[in-house]
Amino acid sequence: MVQFAKIxxxxxxxxxxxxxxxxxxxxxxxxxITFISESFLEIYKAAKKEILGKxxxxxxxIYPLGSKRGVQDLLDLQSGKLKETQSEIISFNQNRFIIxxxxxxxxxxxxxVIGIIHDMDPGVEQFKKNRCLSALEKASxxxxxxxxxxxxxxxxxxxxxxxxGPEIADILEVKVNSVYMYKSILINKIKSVxxxxxxxxxxxxxxxxxxxxxxxxxxxxxxxxxxxxxSSTMSLHALKSEVKSYREKMAAYYHC
Length: 256
Known about the structure:
Blueprint lengths: L1 H7 L1 H9 L4 E6 L4 E4 L1 H7 L3 H4 L4 H4 L1 E2 L5 H12 L5 E8 L4 E13 L2 E10 L4 H4 L8 E4 L2 E4 H12 L5 H8 L3 H17 L8 H10 L9 E5 H7 L4 H19 L2
Parallel strand pairs: 3-9
Antiparallel strand pairs: 1-2, 1-6, 4-5, 4-9, 5-6, 7-8
């Protein structure tokens, strides 16, 4: 916390102290990681010395369908045009599934932008306001159709390791008994096409959102709201083409 306070001071320091469960990192203008929170390390099951100095986008975070707004936000923050940006996003890898809003601020030194502060808020309040939860009208898990309510419930169960029926009822705005009924139906659907008795909701959401792509990738796959809506209407063939195109563009960018 002391290191973070020395780097950013003022407002962001206050936010950090109030909510240590938020996920923070700081990158310099070249995109190299200069600071990471313990919550960031937990996602990758990695030591701090393995991450510091690495490029965030090529090593730890990937936007498989691109992020036009995200790129423009970074440019506007670095130029001083904007002082803060925010975007709703779904992120996941084999360890975590996260519904969040990402806030970005410029890191200043004597009036000059020297980096970008990334502040990810994955709190429970996201499930009452984040548009990503309502982006998918329907989906299919190994041929089994899921409706919007079932998808949202699967997201909640993937995001939280432990959450009670009453808490889910409050999020979905339904009766507690209805939650147990919805959950039972969802689990039975998933188990009908899964191997064994385990029900991994993170795996379910990875399959739904990217149709099986990046199943074992340790990078954090990020789908901002606009790209999430776009991917939900694409065929697997079209999705693979989009991912391939984005990878080629990023490879060219980092090797230029």
